[in-house]
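Lecture notes, structural biology module. Today: joint structure prediction for complexes of two components.
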Amino acid sequence: MAEAVKTAEKNASERPVVVSAVGLTKVFRDFWNRPKAKAVNDIDFEVREGEVVGLLGPNGSGKSTTVKMLLGLLYPTGGRLTVFGKSPRDVENKRLIGYLPEETYLYKYLTAFETLDFFASLFGLSKEERTRRCDQLRDMVGLAHARNRPVGEFSKGMARRIGLAQAMINDPAFLILDEPTSGLDPLGCREVKDLIKLLKKRGKTVIVTSHLLSDVEEVCDRIIVLYGGRIRANGGMEDLLTIRTNDTITVPRLPEDALERIRQIVRESVPEGEMSVAHPHMSLEDFFVDIVNEAKKESLETSGSRSGGTIAEYLTGDKEHDAKAVLDSLTREEETPAQTLAKKKETDAAKAAEEAAKKRQDELFAKLQAAAPAPEEEKSRQAQQEIEAKMSEANRKLKDLLTNPTDRKD
Amino acid sequence: MTAFLAIVKLTCRSAVRSHIFRLLLILLLLSIFLLPFTLLGDGTPKGEVQIFLQYSLGFVGFILSLSSVWLACSEVSSDVETAQIHMIVVKPVRRAVILLGKYTGVVLIHLALLLIAAVTVYIFLSFRLSSADMTEEERLMLDEQVLTARALYRPIRPDFNALAQAELDRRIASAKEHGQDTFLLQNDQTRQEEFLEIRKELMVTYGLIEEGDSLFWQFEGLPKDLTDDDVVFLRYTIYVNRFYVQDQNSVRGHWIFAANYTRPDDNGGETVVSDLIAMPEEDILTAAQNEITVPIKNSFFVYDGKAQVGFLNKDTKTSELNFEEGRGPFLLIRETGFFSNYCRAILVMAVGILSVTLLASAVAACLSLPIAIFFSAAYMLTGGLANYLVTSIPDVADFQAEYTGTFGYRFGDLMLNLIVPLQDFFVTGHLANGELISFPFIGMLFAKDFILRMLPVFLLGAWIYTRRELALVSKRG
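The predicted structure, tokenised, for the full assembly:
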């Protein structure tokens, strides 16, 4: 399994570069052109096709500045920055990019449908195609009942969902999500994370910035930690977060005597004080999602956004759907020969890893959509508990990393 | 194109929702329906219609100009300030297209309003005319002098330089003849001063007619295909004495028209003969615009596109009568109907809206909302001020004035060359006076103001807009 992951990572390094930053610097100047602040200070990084990269850092660390430079909203003071090999200001390049800003700036008087229709028009889509995509996206983000409500009346979470929908209206190859889960309820957060996983499965490149480290951890392959405009850590999630000095063994509930025998064996090599045995417990997020699913089963209505969950047809990879044809035509245009080549080179191991991920994700979807708990639910919950246990440990480590940024330099 | 249309549509919708726009819309409606009732003309139906046309349409033009400046500024710059533009510029749309889309949106909504206002005013006017109680004579006067479109012909301006030079030469010759000291006149500087003095005197006294004296004006370029059925009008304003006095008086005098015809000469050819035909002596109101119909047949009055008109002062109460330059006499000849002229006036107003919006969008593309509005307002005020400076210091154009006067005039002149005076687009005065708004005039306005002055400003604004770091500006980003 570990080998398979390594091979997949090796393959990742052969994939085409989507974002390349070399010596990227941004200095903000005052009215008299005197340097005021160095928001980004000589950073180098690369994002390759199909990667989901988390951009982390405390407030003022340069995340937003970097993202805005990627979008051509700010211009670098120094260094070189390319997106798909071109300047971030290249207009045609923007057909491949989807962007969810930190705050969703919407025209308050437009309805949900009109908002999406407007953004779709900016891509020059036909009227029929716009209507189709808008309706599907609206269902997907759970705003089907709010089609004709002005977005000015929306709650922050609902506006966020519309923001997310507009970011995907062009089925982008590269998504930049600035705090995608901010303002969303746990159910919404889960949907966003599932969506990011789905995008990754479809080979999309995603940059996510977030303060909620658990979100990042769950979906990202790699993280870049910024502090004071510099990169403090940059690497695969597995590399950065594995606590190589501890081991965790997770097994189904054991009889007391079996557990005692294990303790005996462990005591032989580890002092009593360094060992602990406990029952794993589910995360609050899982607990909340279960409660809401239970309520949905009992048909309790809410006036705000509802759990969507149905992925827009044109975004899914299902070949049976008509929308796939449109999508294929879109992606075909966008795909470079290098990209195709890179995809072909994927090894069986990578495929196996992906299948495993797909299986896990399918289980999560099933959990979201199915009202009644499936027989496998107990099994998947255990698997989830395992993940959560690891995650809380990793989160602690990540937080340590952020609070003592100088401890670890790239 | 889809993206451009989407931006145009969004701009229109956003414009309609602006509070200031709604306020201005209410003012617009008031100006159409209530203003005409609050203004009183000179009591005649003609005066009432003139006032109605001048103020209703004038106010419509003014409100729409204000509104287009406000909306263009707010549509372009508030999007940048509220960071809403971030959502648009990250999509595959050129910034120039965004700016052009916003401009088009603001223009379209104002052209639609202008059209509605124009139709309403026209219907309102027709209703008032049909229900007005007036005599046959009043109706005829209204039809001939207001509800028409007459081309205005100005008399040939005498060559004051040549006249002054001739007078100067005469004085030098006369001085020499009398053996006087001509040293002063032979010095270049003093001779130039003398020349300017003579010219000034000539210009001031040009329109003055002493009692018993007469003055003639030449007209050229009149239509050669005039028939005897066409009516030619003479418009004039008489003042008492050389000083500009607004007090109204009654003075006496009569007009003289030259009747031209050909007569066989001794050599078997033809000679043109001019006979002067004097009208009966009459009482004329001073400091008021008068109009009379030329009483002789056009086939005699206009010869080869030329005509001659004179005035004989028969007033014994005053020392001299004065025809101020620029206030007549003029000849007016009907070219087309009132409706056509009305449409042309609306067309000029439309060019004004196109130009003003172009300016405001260009400015707002580079500056924040309050500064953009301030700048646009200052631009338009400067146009008005420059126009005032140039017209109120007319002497500078012809002879030396005080330094401050010269400076003021030159400054105004420079400004008028650089910027577009808003009053260029207010042609309701022409319409109310039944004067033709010619297509060459509209074309000239479009070329001079829109293409030569406003378009470069817009292109500069668009250039800056495409290069701005938009995220630096936003208050929320």
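Point to remember: Residues 247 and 288 of chain A are 29 Å apart (CA to CA).
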